[in-house]
Amino acid sequence: MQLRGCGTALVTPFHQDGSIDEPAFRNLVAWQVESGIDFLDPCGTTGETPTLSHDEWLRVIDLAVEVGAGRVPIVAGATSNSTNDAVQKAKEVAARPGVDAILTANPYYNKPTQEGQYRHFRAIAEAVDKPIVVYNVPGRTGANLEPATLARLTEVPNIVAVKEASGSVNQIAEICGLVPENFSVLSGDDVVTLPVIALGGVGVISVVGNEIPREMAEMTRTALNNDWDAARKIYRKYLPLFQANFIESNPLPVKAVLAMMGKIEEVYRLPLLPMRRDTRSKLQKIATEVGLISKAATPVAESHDFFVYENWMAGPRKIVLHRSSCGQCNHGKGRPSGHDANHAKWHGPYTSLTEAREASQVIQNVLIRSECKCI
User: Fold this and answer.
1) Quick check: is 135 catalytic?
2) pLDDT at 132
């Protein structure tokens, strides 16, 4: 198996109560496949996998397989910083019908040596009969897989590809010169997709593919077909979007854009929180400029609607006044992690600040009244 083209590192949509939004995930996968994406990667970094329970992790993978229905390869994420645990996870996911390959990242936190990483990845590969995609992402794991170590790993028969997200073009160039021709070098960063292909890589595992699957697949395909003028045209149009998707930690921006597009609810699990107002505003402007959302259909910061958030989850009953465009409010749909509908609710909308303030004064049994910085 040789992975090639553009694969999407799928987000995991959540409901406001924090549970997995299965209908939204199904729709997202179907849209990806229908848009011509080459393969899908559920349960990677972008999928907030560290916050998923064991059962949720398997459920997301099963949903991707079910909706994909064999139309595209499914490269399922299975990572742990314990080699024994990583081996067990790889065995478990390899046994799932419809999983075509396994993506597994550097052991995080431990900061292993090169030999330690080599033995870790080799142990995983030797425990299963599925193709393995090694994921080198030192910015998140604290461990860089050096080109010479990767070259050794290519000798393990079922290690077939690397998702290279070191951010170093020098390292990528060295890798492309060391690995066999049948080994797939995939970019782990959208912004260097074309440089990676120019150096000998064969594609990308993309974050932005969640938002523009058709365009990312076309850009990658045209570059692989040596139609560089067409590839550069797409790249230049969407470069601001590539950059904006990492204006804050992934997957905050990509889930925000998908919410703006009406694809998912913008809900994260702690320790991730919604984007800051200033970065959200920049992201929304770029998403509008590249045509993903329309100005008329998207609430903007100048909205004059106001909401009051009432919360009695813990301690005294509290209310906070927000603008509807505030990231915490999200037009009366937002809810901080840990809050649920049984202990919190929104009042509004109110058409003016004066009306909202007056309404907040008559809400009963409130001990603490405050206003968000957005006011």
Assistant:
1) yes
2) 98
